[in-house]
Structure prediction request, 562 residues.
Amino acid sequence: MEKEDILKNLVAFSTAENELAIKEANHLIDVFKAIFSKEVEDYSTNADNNESIELVDPNKDELNIKINAAIEDFQKKQKEKKDLKEKKEQSNINTKKEILSRFKDLIDNKEKIAVLINGIKQIREDWKNSGDVPRKAFYELQKTYSQLNESFNYNLNIYKELKDNDLKRNFSLKNQVIHNLKALKDEKSINKVDTLLKQFQNEWEEIGPTFKDHWEQLKKDYWNEVHAIQKRIHEHYTKLKESSKENLEAKKKLIEKAAELAKAIPDNHKDFDAKSKLYKELQDEWKKIGPVAKAQSDKIWNEFRSHFDPFFEAKKEFYNKQKEASKILIEAKSKLIEKAKQIASDATANSSTQLIKDLQDDWKKIGHAGRFAEQKLWKKFRKECDAFFEKRESSKGARNQQEKENLNSKKSIIQEIIDLKEIDSSSIGSLVSKFEAIGKVAPKETQPLFQKFEKAVNEKMRAAEISAEEKNKIQLAIKKSLFSTASDPERAFNDAKYKITKKINEALKETSNLENNLGFFSVSKGKNKMLDDFNKKIENQKKQIESWKQDLKKLKQAYSQK
Prediction:
């Protein structure tokens, strides 16, 4: 359920009167608490290491604030209603007792039948309008009222004054009430059964007398149904009470687990991540357990949450410190970007590349500024470095003739590889060595040329019977050729590393999304194929990630040996 719907429904239920609506509102509150708890956890986990995404504190989220206000308003109004209801019910008890006293006086009165009939009409009307009382009090008061009705209907011989058609009508109406009571067996909602029972009992009492010959059996049938329904209601609430006790014990055990878990606070990202998963498992278990008595619900939930707070506070502090450390690194690298920008703006054909290389060395010395920030900063820094080299190269007027010759020679080698018929490690290795020995090409030609070269060699190796050891040697030689080809090896290395790392991160994100989506599939026959396709896609993605990781490893090895 969306939070907007929760807010809308809570506002709608703010003036709820019946138990079903109130129960639904309380359920919505529990759902929101679970959502809010998850938002707090996600915020604590991601807010500190996700500089690229602006996250909103759940406690400051406008919608969350509105929902909490709606919850407070609902609970306040419900308390007011409860207090008012209890006061009103007590008043109604006194009213009903006063009506019963009047009823007794009426029965003892020796007035004319017409007076008595008018009196009973007023008493019944007053009784009907006297309002609700607590269940226990209702049954006793209703029983007394029924007995008085019997005394009035039979002892004062009202039946003699009623017409035969009225007796028949009342007989039919009372049988209809019995029929309606029997139909309650099929009603699953106990709250509805309880409400309808009171309604049908009032209807029964409002119906006038019927044939005396049928009365005893009719009354017996009526009370059999009433008692059976009352028994069902009693058993339901007894069972609910027992279930609440079992749920309470189960939740107490989870509190013990949470208390044990809270004894040790981690001091590193790995342990914080692992323990966060354990806390989430406890929360999931808690949600699966049914409700407890309302009087204990808030207390036991607060006790459970109290063992979470120290951990998440420590987690927040840990990542805040990391964030502060990252800020220092971010500021340092931002300054290098500004320096590179200034150098690029002043670049000429005679500009020394050493200025940029010095900045690149400084960049590596500063250290990693966090996964998300590092990627953004490196992209900006590389852009300024590229601008420097491009501006310097453009001022030369023409490409270096030797680089043109090297480019053509390397293209020829690539074509030789493509046209190679007899494929073995010796022939491929020889051409790779020739390619590496030719020399450098223009910076903008480096990556496209190397990609064509690598693709051609890999395709030939896939078609040849070459040992894994030989393949690794050749692939390492391929990576080394990138640095022999590039006029700026460090730039070429960083570019290649960035592209591979970007592919890995994007694939990891996609794999995570696919794994999360697995939970939407049931185990039914109709969805097995789709589920298999999903699992196959995930497996292929993981294989591709592993392949890219190996490429990155070989790239770093080749650069270290250049």
Observations:
- DSSP finds 19 helices and no strands in the chain.
- The mean pLDDT is 80.
- Residues 324-390 form one domain.
